[in-house]
Write a structure and sequence with these properties.
Layout lengths: L2 H21 L5 E6 L7 H13 L9 E6 L7 H10 L4 E5 L2 H10 L5 E5 L19 E5 L2 H15 L5 E6 L6 H14 L3 E6 L3 H14 L3 E4 L3 H5 L1 H10 L4 E3 L2 H5 L4 E5 L1 H16 L15 E6 H7 L5 H6 L2 E3 L1
Parallel strand pairs: 1-2, 1-3, 3-4, 4-5, 6-7, 6-8, 8-9, 9-10, 11-12
Antiparallel strand pairs: 10-11
Helix pairs in contact: 2-11, 3-4, 5-6
Length: 326
């Protein structure tokens, strides 16, 4: 073999694998935008990936995921969303409430978006209609706004003699006005006084908790907000240390030591978000996917916490509970 022929053959042999790799299609990259934090979102993130797997997508095998977390600081979301757009992700899962959804929608009108919301998605301006959203966005609502009055009623059933209930809300969370309106209406119906305090950052949260203590509230209702989810442990610890019965929106609060919780099964919603992302990757237009509402709601009672607070839970409430933690 001549030297020139050998070099040509060697060059072809070495170059071939690089050429083959260049011809391999790039796997799609999903943008995951959340107002929450990764540590307290492990369970919902697992549910999201379960939904993806149900549509035959697995991270690291045939999709990649770019994660962006705001850690409860909503003002970071627009920049995080814009960064995902610059990275040319093919779908954005904007989860953790309306704040994430709006940041994603402001960042792009072309990349498909699967969002989570707290209440009426049409009123919030996220879609035009529930059944056929049109545009580039769809997703699910957790109906948080509609459940605040139900939670107040459960707290009243537990503590019928309580005359002052503390309400902690997040003024930076866009559905807050609707949440407070529903609570005030419900409180007037049962002649209950509310001590309403806003907290959207750590300084205000610490101050608000101290005010609740000094005001001598009989119980606490924590409104639904992603910021509070990221500070779940701090709030539960405060209620325990100060012997204040409290109700929360998600099961995870009761599991972590909160007294009672009532709300949608959030893992179901995140699993469905994963399914929707998978369907969009397979070619379905987001505008053709209806906005979904929860079908499963969990009422959870932590009897261990009740005992520590010196409370006896009425048998009627226990029989109504979907889960009792002992």
């Amino acid at each position: 073999m001549r030297r020139r022929e050998f070099i040509t053959l060697l060059g072809g042999t070495v170059a071939w694998p690089f050429a083959a790799r260049a011809q391999q299609p790039a796997i799609p990259v999903i943008g995951f935008l959340s107002s929450r934090s990764p540590d307290e979102s492990k369970h919902v993130l697992a549910a999201f990936h379960q939904g993806l797997s149900e549509t035959e997508f697995t991270e690291g095998r045939n999709i990649a995921v770019e994660y962006r977390w705001a850690f409860g600081e909503y003002e970071k979301l627009p920049a995080l969303a814009a960064d995902l757009v610059r990275r040319n992700v093919v779908v954005i899962a904007a989860l953790g409430g309306d704040v994430s959804a709006k940041a994603a929608e402001q960042a792009t009108s072309t990349i498909p978006i699967v969002f989570s919301a707290a209440g009426d998605v049409v009123k919030a301006g996220l879609v035009k209609t529930w059944n056929k959203p049109e545009g580039n966005a769809t997703g699910f609502t957790l109906l948080t706004n509609d459940l605040e009055s139900k939670r107040l009623g459960l707290l009243h059933d537990l503590l019928p003699k309580a005359d002052l209930v503390g309400v902690l809300y997040d003024p930076n969370f866009s559905p807050a006005e609707d949440q407070l309106g529903a609570l005030e209406k419900a409180a007037n119906t049962i002649a209950l006084r509310l001590d309403v305090l806003g907290a959207g950052n750590d300084e205000d949260l610490n101050a608000g908790l101290q005010l609740l203590r000094s005001h001598g509230v009989s119980a606490l209702l924590l409104t639904g907000a992603p910021y509070f989810d990221t500070r779940r442990g701090r709030i539960i610890e405060f209620a325990a240390d100060n012997k204040i019965p409290a109700i929360y929106q998600f099961r995870e609060y009761a599991v972590d030591g909160g007294l009672i919780s009532y709300g949608p099964r959030i893992t179901d919603a995140y699993r469905q978000a994963g399914v929707y992302v998978g369907r969009i990757l397979k070619g379905t237009k987001p505008g053709d996917l209806p906005v979904l509402q929860p079908t499963n709601f969990d009422f959870v009672i932590n009897l261990k916490t009740a005992k520590a607070l010196g409370l006896t839970i009425p048998s009627g409430l226990i029989s109504f509970a979907d889960e009792v933690i002992e």
